[in-house]
Amino acid sequence: MLRCYILDDEQHAVDGLTAMLKKKFAGQAEVCGSQTKASKAIEEIEELEPDVLFLDVEMPEMTGLDVLKQFPTRKFHVIFTTAHEKYALPALKAEAADYLVKPLSPQDVFDAIQKCIQRKSAAGNNTSGNRISLATTQEIVLVNTDDIIRIEANNNYSHFYFTNRPRLIVSKTLKEFEEQLTPFHFYRVHQSHLVNMKYVESVHSNDGDYILLTGGHRVEISRRKKPEFMQLIRKS
Fold first, then answer.
1. Of 67, 134, 141, 213, which has fewest CB within 10 angstroms of its CB?
2. What DSSP string runs through 90-151?
3. What is the CA radius of gyration of the chain?
C-alpha cells in the first residue's frame, strides 16, 4: 500500500484526486495527508514520510520544483500534476515518477501509481538502494544510478559513461541493464543506447534524430523509438 500526500494550491483539485484514490485505488494507495500551502506541506511531508507525493507545479507561494529542493535526499516518489506541459523536462530532471496533465484521468493516475510500485519494489530488492554492481575484468564496482549518463552496447559488452568517473566496460548485454535500470528513469532510445532521462538536455531532428545529454554526449534515436520517447518527454 502506497501512502500518498497531495499538494495543490486548488482545494477542488485536492478533493478530486483524494476522492479518485479512495474510490478507484483503495487497494493500492491511501491518502495520508494533503495541503494547499507549500510551506505547511513541507513540514507535514517531513513528519508523515509518504511513499508518494502528488505535486502541483505552479503555485503562488513556491513552485513544485522549489518544494522538491527542500528534500535533497528525498525517499518519496513524485508524481507531478499540472495544467501545463512545459515543465515536463524539468520534471524528468527532478526524477519524477510521472508527469500528469490536468484534468487527471483514472488511467493516467493508475499508470503513475504502477510506476511508483515498480520503483518501490526495485529499491526493496536491491540491498544497495540506488546503487548497482558492475563487474569488469579487474574489479567489481558499486555505482550510484544517478551518476550514470548513458550506456552503449558493443556486442555482448556494455560501455558505461558517468558524470564523475572514467568509462567502464562490463561483460553484460544492454538488455540486462535495461530491465534493471528502467525503474530509475532510464530509457532505451536505440538498439545500442540506454540513457538516463535526468541528463537529457535537448532533442534534435536535423542531421538525423538525436538527443544531447549532459557532458556533450550525442545519442541517436531510432525511428521506432522516437514517438514513445517524445511522449515520455512531454508527459512522463
1. 141
2. HHHHTT-SEEEESSPPHHHHHHHHHHHHHHHHHHHT-TTTTEEEEE-SS-EEEEEGGGEEEE
3. 19
Classified as helix, coil or strand, 76 is coil
pLDDT computed for residue 166 by the predictor:
93
CA distances to 55, 105, 118, 150, 196 from 153, in Å:
36, 38, 25, 10, 15
Tens digit of each residue's pLDDT (9 = 90 or more) over 37-73: 999 999 999 999 999 999 999 999 999 999 999 998 8
* Cα–Cα dist 232/158, whole Å: 24
Any idea what DSSP says for residue 44? H
The pLDDT value recorded for residue 128 is 46
Q: What is the dihedral of CA 232, 185, 72, 116, to 10 degrees?
A: 90
pTM of the model: 0.59
For residue 117, pLDDT beyond 50: yes
Closest CA to 80 of 48, 102, 110: 102
Q: Report which DSSP code applies to 36.
A: S
In angstroms, the CA 30 to CA 159 distance is 41
From CA 69, how far away is CA 30, in angstroms rounded?
A: 25
CB 177 within 8 A of CB 151: yes
Peptide linkage before 103 cis (omega within 30 of 0): yes
3-class DSSP assignment, residue 55: strand
Mean pLDDT of 79-105: 84
Q: Which of 7, 68, 16 is nearest to 38 (CA)?
A: 7
